[in-house]
Amino acid sequence: AQSVAQPEDQVNVAEGNPLTVKCTYSVSGNPYLFWYVQYPNRGLQFLLKYITGDNLVKGSYGFEAEFNKSQTSFHLKKPSALVSDSALYFCAVRDDRGSTLGRLYFGRGTQLTVWP
Amino acid sequence: NAGVTQTPKFRILKIGQSMTLQCTQDMNHNYMYWYRQDPGMGLKLIYYSVGAGITDKGEVPNGYNVSRSTTEDFPLRLELAAPSQTSVYFCASSYDPQRESTGPYNEQFFGPGTRLTVL
User: Fold this and answer.
1) Least buried of A9, A38, A42, A116, by fewest C-beta within 10 Å?
2) Which segments of B1-119 are extended strands (E)?
3) What tens digit of pLDDT does each residue of A59-83 get?
């Protein structure tokens, strides 16, 4: 079965420092991975995705993610955190099999807090 | 484009009542989805649709029903509300031109959510 795990419920980082939000995945076929962000009382917003190609994917708001097939990971990173990056971050994997094609399976989310 | 819109934003129901959560998208997306979000649990898929007239169950469909009579609308129906259905509900849509593994993998666009409380 397809699944993702976000091992940290919370990540705290000082403004200006690099941040990493971790995600590991389990898939039966090719991994198609996504990161979404949710600000308070809002819907999810797409940040970036990995389909194929370069292992370093660049996305919105200066975020990037590194795909590592051997470690089955897709960690979200940003070189310099901003207070406005504080939000709930979700990793997701796309189901690419048969009748359930196209569905996304989400992790539990990681609350990122960037303090001034 | 308004994107994905949901109504209402908030609702309180009594046990046993019924209601319909509305979802509309104006992006001509073929795929539409309903999720529920519970604290610390991420998002769980309730139902989804790959086009008008076609719907299918997700991970947690019990207690819900959907229909997809048009491309734009994908309402979610709760027939007999229960406290376990207290949650935040999100509708989403995406466009995939073909249901094959080699097709493009486009992101889902989410609505603002409906916060439902069942007392």
Assistant:
1) A116
2) 4-7, 10-13, 19-25, 31-37, 43-51, 54-57, 64-66, 76-78, 87-94, 109-110, 114-118
3) 999 999 999 999 999 999 999 999 9
Contact yes or no for A43 and B90 at CB 8 A? yes
pLDDT at position A46: 93
HSE at residue A24, side-chain half, CA atoms within 13 A, is 6
For residue B52 the two structure tokens come to: 């008008």
**If you search the block for the tokens 């998002």, which residue do you land on?**
B43
Among chain B residues, the shortest Cα distance to A7 is held by B40
Provide CB contacts within 8 A for B67, sequence distance 6+. B55, B74, B75, B77
- Inter-chain touch A103–B111, beta carbons under 8 Å: no
Residue A99 confidence (pLDDT): 54
